[in-house]
Every structure is written in structure tokens, then in C-alpha cells.
Amino acid sequence: MSTDLTIEQLRTRAADHLMRARARTAALTDAVDEDDLVRQHSPLMSPLVWDLAHVGNQEELWLVRDVGRREPVRSDIDDLYDAFKHGRASRPSLPLLGPAEARSYVREVRDKVLDVLDAATLEGTPLVQDAFAFGMVVQHEQQHDETMLATHQLRAGAPVLDDSPPPQAKVRPSHEEVLVPAGEFTMGTSTEPWALDNERPAHPAYTDAFFIDTAPVTYGDFLHFVESGGYTQEQWWSPAGWQHVQEAGLAAPQFLTREGDHWMRRRFGVVERVREDEPVTHVCFYEAEAYAAWTGRRLPTEVEWEKAARWDPATGRSRRYPWGDEDPGPEHANLGQQHLRAAPVGAYPAGASPLGVHQLIGDVWEWTSSDFMPYPGFAVFPYAEYSAVFFGPEYKVLRGGSFGTDAVACRGTFRNWDFPIRRQIFAGFRCARDAGAEELG
Ligand SMILES: [Fe+2]
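# fe (ii) ion complex -> structure
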């Protein structure tokens, strides 16, 4: 979004985003019956009804109470929906609001929030400047919508979500990898109005010359590794990865099974043949790292990923997105749960970066080799619980968003993080390698 909106335009924009997020939340929670709403579909996930009321509770805390300075709607339930107090595995045993109660709670909160938005000045303090707090709440809800989409993928039973096919491949990227020259570029942002604290501030970052894949690794590519015995060959795995692959008994990306001569995948309740040209999805960091090692390469660092995505060699500046500064449109990237899968490689030529790197935004989150750490000059804003408490080597950074990420929660600078063993998220990867002196001409 651009910063030169009038206050009234900003208000309308915030209200539109709030409405869009809520329509998605409603679609995800109305698609299943009450049993499915309160059941835990995996110990990794909350019951859908927890996510629903948690979204409303955070909205109440941040907008009704902090921004609006209004009376609490329901302070008695704050503890139940505090993600830090109760891990996902324990949430089903809490005295949660039932589906009807949760729905009426989030409706009541939203009515108050629309009043707060009407009355808010949207300038003066950093929390309301450019409607930041409203943007933060919108992104939080959309992030939970993506989490709920992952719960849908883990849910057993018949398909319930609308599934329209993604676009076909339009081009074949002309090279498998491109050279990114050594040098500094501007990483992160100080100007994107709804960027979260961990994306800030803009700062110079340096890389040596490296090669990066022009497309995410596909199922076809990855299954060569599987079929050549990669999961049983220690030499491709880091010590932690090797231990995990054995303990967890991993043998292929999640949701894949072998039937006769074919690999089949269960995808939101549909079992279908795996598409070879589709980016591999549902692999953990360790699987990504092992595949890269098997091909003689490595995962990109977070700095390398962002340079390949944003740096424009013609101007030397960093773009908001690979394709330029415009907000994502349907021609640029597979975002926003328009399709329930990643699109084949080559489906979004209009979204390529100046260096010719495709599908950096949308399709699948991409694992990087980097730990989730603060940028130089990082300042907590507005709450330490948003990202600061997660900084450290236990989390790896993922970039670029997936088909389940809404555009409002996806920027060239956006940083996601997760444990290296997680694979219920819509994550894949691409490979990189150092550029040898002889390749630099
Ligand atoms: Fe949350």
C-alpha cells in the first residue's frame, strides 16, 4: 500500500481489509460442522474454534482496549486465548467458547472495532499512524487463516473447500539458476507502513556473488532424491537432520504415498497424482537442506533470498516486490488461497524479479538457511510478543509466502519463522550455491 492516502482513504482501506479477512475466517470455519470445529485434527494445531476466538481476542486487546481505550468485551477469556500460556496440544482441554459463542464474540468485538476505526485519528502516534494497529490486526487474522488452512489440510474426510486450478505454466525459465553479483543492497524496510517490527529498519546488507535457482524445487526434482535413497543416506543430512529423519521415520514429503508406479498426494481431502512441475510442498527444513546437499548446493541465506527478490541491478535500489512496487495482483503471484496448491513452475512470468528469478512470492514459503535474528537497529514495536521473543537459533526463517498467504501479509521484506522440523506449513524451497572465481568472468 502507498503512504500518500488521505485519512478517509486509509480508513476505508483498513475497513476493507478487516472485512476481507473476516470473510476468509468465516469461510474456513463455516466449511466444517461443529464437531470438526472443536476437534483437534493434529497435536500441532489448535481446534479451529480456538483460532476463531483467539483472532477476536487479539483484536479486542489491540484495537478495542489499546487503540480505542474502551471497556473490555470479555476480559475473563484473555487467559484461554493467550498463545503463550497454553501450547497448541493443550488447547482442546481448555474450557473454550463453543462455536456459537465464539462467533458472536468475534462479531461483537468487530462491531466495536469499526466504531473505533471511525473515531480514530490515524495519525499522531506510531500505533495508529497509517492505521498500523489495524493493519497488524488484519495481518494477524490472515496469518491465522493460513494456519487454519493448514489445519484443513491435516483434517481427515471429504473435501470442503473451493478448489480452482492455478494457472498453467506460461514460460519455462530460460536458466535454471542466475548469478547474483557481490555487493551491498538495502534489506528490510523503514517506509512500508504495515511492515512488522522484525522487517525493520532498512539497512545495508552485503553478499558475495552467488547463484540462485530461478524456480522453487519441484516434486519431480525432489522425488529423484527420494527414489535414489536420499532419506536413508546419512551423507546428505546435517547431524540434527539425520537424527530427526530417523526418529520421525520420514521417507518422503508429507501427504505423499506410493501407489504402484505413481506418487499420490492427499490434498485437502482429494487424493491425486503428484504433478512433477509443481513446487514441492510440506517438506521440513532438514529435508530441504538434505536435498540441496544431494545436488551439491545449499539453501540460500535470508540475505541472499531478499537480494534475489528485491535488488534491481539497473537502479541499485530495492523494490517492494520482485516485479516492482505495485501491490500483488493475480498475474504476479499465487497468493490469498485463490488456489489450494502451488502453481507449476513458469506460471507467473509477470512476477519475476529483475534478475529473472520466478515465483519468489506466493506458491510456497521458502526455507532459508538463516536463524530468525533481529536486524541491526531493531526496536520492539508494539509488543515484544510479536516477534522479539522468538529471536534465536531454534527458528529458521522462511520467505515469500504461500498460496495460503494473503497479499496483505506478504511483502518482499516479510519474514516468517518456524522450527526446522515443521512440515504441516505450506513450505518448499529453492537452492543456491557460491559462485566460483572462474564463473565470475
Ligand atoms: Fe495469534
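# post-check
Residues 54, 58, 83, 140, 144 surround fe (ii) ion (CB under 6 Å).
The longest strand covers residues 365-372.
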